[in-house]
Amino acid sequence: MQTILVNELRQRYGDFEAVGGISFEVGEGELFALLGTNGAGKTTTLETLEGFRNAGSGTVRVLGHDPYRERRALRPQLGIMLQEAGFFADLTVAETVDQWRRFTPSPRERDEVLGMVGLPQQTEVRTRQLSGGQKRRLDLALALLGRPRVLFLDEPTTGMDPEARHATWKIVRELVADGTTVLLTTHYLEEAEQLADRLAIMHRGRIEVAGTVADVVAGQGDRITFRVPDRVPVSDLPTLCGAVADIAVESGRAVAGYRVQGLQASLYELLRWAEHHRLELDGLQARSASLEDVFLHTAAATPEGAVR
Ligand SMILES: Nc1ncnc2c1ncn2[C@@H]1O[C@H](COP(=O)(O)OP(=O)(O)OP(=O)(O)O)[C@@H](O)[C@H]1O
Q1: Tell me, what's the ipTM?
Q2: Is the CB of residue 304 below 6 angstroms from any atom belonging to ligand 1?
Q3: Candidate from 10, 12, 16, 49 with most ligand 1 atoms within 8 A of CB, to mutate
């Protein structure tokens, strides 16, 4: 049995289809990241899995349960970190945790969860006085109180400084190593690269690409870029193993960018061309595709407002 199963899920808000028939599965102890452009439908998908919304159509299962209809059975096994924290501003951190402990079966001790998320010094601070990153950490502490089998994290590290983000990644890695299944959404591609066993990139309600980071990046080609030399008209730039240059302007200079299959042969052609024309190639870079390249390519493929 898959811990999380989504099959042909569709969700509408009135006439607007926010999720347009997506499918994916997450196995026990796996971390799956949902990436996507703004408004792609990630939170709507997460809210459906968390049992806050009934599936418009399609099938959704978490630990074998329908999360909306069987919420009562499922809820104690879930940890949920929403995008916006909803704390009582006048309660202290300790009071907030204590209040949540009352509603949680066999909860972790207060000191244990605050220690896990790195807030042991803040017990007497009122929640309204916490920084944005500390609020996210308190939110994570509350999601971990019930030792969840499945953890939903909606942009868990937004507002955190790099140190807090790395500390949070460490906590999440340890939870996954202990067998917790995690579904997270993030806008930080590095977060997905660091944590995800598998990921999916959503755009306008659809999953455009999915797999391991290596799967997703494979087949995207490598990148060669350089500043176009002043005396070379753009129309005279070479093709590299059949690839044509895309021209971008950076700091007032034209930059040629090629998406090529296989760096070595393409670089060889480029360097031979430069040698032949006695050109120095400023800012020459050659590298493999990154998750960011795939993300930007996916977002550009069907821009907002375009008809599919
Ligand atoms: N309650 C609602 N009523 C109407 N439209 C909504 C509602 N909630 C979300 N939407 C719309 O549905 C689409 C998907 O929203 P959703 O919040 O799921 O996207 P997201 O991928 O989480 O976006 P972001 O990365 O910006 O948080 C958006 O266009 C959003 O404006």
Answers
A1: 0.96
A2: no
A3: 16
